Amino acid sequence: MPEPPNGRAKSRIWSRPASALSQASWLFPWKGIYYFLAHPFLWPLLRARLIPSVLLSIFVFTSLFVWTYLPQVAFLALFHGRRLAFVNGAFLVLGEGAAIVALLFEAFFVDETLVDVFDAVLINEGNVDLVATSRLIYSDGSNPVKQLGKPKTSAVYSPFSLRQIVEFIIFLPLNLVPVAGTPIFLILTGYRAGPLHHWRYFKLLGLKKVERRLFVRQRRLKYTWFGTVALLLQLVPILSMFFLLTTAAGSALWVARLEKMRKRHDNATQNDQSEEAYADDPV
Fold first, then answer.
1. Which of 24, 50, 82, 264 has a 20 to 30 A CA-CA distance from 110?
2. Is residue 260 pLDDT above 80, yes or no?
3. pTM, whole model, 2 decimals?
4. pLDDT at 200
5. CB-based contact 152:135 (threshold 8 Å)
6. Under a CB-based contact definition with an 8 Å cutoff, are residues 244 and 102 in contact?
């Protein structure tokens, strides 16, 4: 008859699923919010963009709700009924606003800031060598942001994707489907958007197109959930630009986790090779 597990064994049994849950990809956008708020060295990156982001968001969302919300609710009421039409109409306008704000802000204001947030978090999490492949690092800087030097090559957090924009527009009518339409819209859009949050990481690793596709394919479901939550946060009026920055922090935290696992795997492989070489040498 097998003996019951002792306290240490029980702790391991319960810690494994808890650890796996804590590293779920959909949690990293939320972790990014806490991380951004808990590390004051990141705040100046937000402060520099705060006023234009708030003004732009207020203008876009106010204009859409004033001029397009009620007409879209009236149209949705034909399919959903009055109550659901108001809810799904709000999601529809929020989605349209998030797309417009993200396009305008990422194109003119924020992509460089997203790169700085991403790189600063990686440095703070002990991945200086990874960031140093793409930009100068000032080791005497008082915090990770001040350690960031000029990029050695083009530094882009997430590339402009015409395909993503077209798909976003094509998927918008899914909000016409009662109840399930909005969640399906978020998931399908997150499917495409998720991997783009690691574009900077792929460039730091020097991955080629085929390697990027393989990397993403192996983690497709995880990227879909990450992208879905990231998009959901960007639907929040006024705060959408703040959540763009915190999502970049969450993306970098996920990279730090992946790098930790990769280094652990590389070290284990080296140790195995060393043991084999030792065993083959009879002297």
1. 24
2. yes
3. 0.78
4. 93
5. yes
6. yes
Q: Interior CA angle at 69 toward 65 and 71, to 5°?
A: 140
Give the residue among 228, 279, 205, 280 at the shortest CA–CA distance from 24.
228
- CA atoms of 131 and 143, how far apart (whole Å): 15
Q: What are the tokens at 245?
A: 């920055």
Give the position of tokens 């003004």. Answer: 55
The region that residue 36 occupies, defined by phi over 0 for left and psi between -120 and 50 for alpha, beta otherwise, is alpha
Average the pLDDT over 39-66 and give the result: 82
**Residues 149-199: tens digit of each pLDDT:** 998 888 888 876 667 777 777 777 776 676 777 788 888 888 888 999 999
Give the count of beta carbons closer than 10 Å to the beta carbon of residue 87. 15
d(CA 189, CA 182): 11
pLDDT in tens, 73-131: 887 777 667 777 787 778 778 777 777 776 676 655 677 889 999 999 999 999 999 99
Q: Identify the top-confidence range among 50-59, 79-88, 132-141, 237-246.
A: 132-141
Residue with the bigger pLDDT between 211 and 274: it is 211
Q: Is the pLDDT of residue 17 over 70?
A: no
Amino acid at 104: L
